[in-house]
Amino acid sequence: MITRNKTPSKYVYYGLYLYFSGLLLRRAAERLSYIFKRNHVSIWNWIQKYHPKRISSKRKRIAEYIIDETLIKVGSQYIWLWVAIEPRNRQILALNISKERNMLIAERFISGLVRIHGKHPVSTDRGTWYPQACRFLNLDHHIHSHYEKSIIERKMQYIKDRAESFDDYFPCKMKNCNLNHIINWLTLFVDYHNKERNR
């Protein structure tokens, strides 16, 4: 009887991380092989099973959405990073990037949350785009309490530091880049972060 060795999840994530960093499959497998022997076909299979566009499809028990946005630098351009967390377990519910910040982008981000997790109250800073978006989506909206402000600011800084570190090590050299490599890497990072918080 042939037994197959299942690859530990930390090595699967590292293989995906290498690929989303911009390495070719063979080069990613070569780097991974320094710590865990797997070939490029294994990494290709992991990519097929991983869906980087969606952070979570499972419904969670959610008290409210705590949402914020911050400006980050990617290569030579600045982009807006949008993040939503849940206050009880502080998991990241959604994450996105945009080149602008306005009511339409805020509404699209929040409507994506509602589509996956249902309608819940929304807590934000004093940005004028949030109340308008919440009214349009028929959601209760309030300004962050001190506690909510504290946890979202810490989480934003945590993500921002890692996003900018990623760009330092793996700068994009493409002209007019669509930034898909950044959103793929951030989504992979969030997926791993949430699994670690669930342990």
TrEMBL record:
Bilayer-spanning residue ranges: 12-29
Any Pfam family matching the protein: DDE_Tnp_IS240
Keywords: Membrane, Transmembrane, Transmembrane helix
UniProt cross-references to InterPro entries, sorted A to Z: DDE_dom, RNaseH-like_sf
Record-given protein name: DDE domain-containing protein
KW Transmembrane helix (keyword) present: yes
PANTHER family assigned: ISH14-TYPE TRANSPOSASE HSIRS44, PTHR39967
Organism taxonomic ancestry: Archaea, Nitrososphaerota, Nitrososphaeria, Nitrososphaerales, Nitrososphaeraceae
Superkingdom of origin: Archaea
Residue ranges of domain DDE in the record: 66-164
Residues forming coiled coils: none
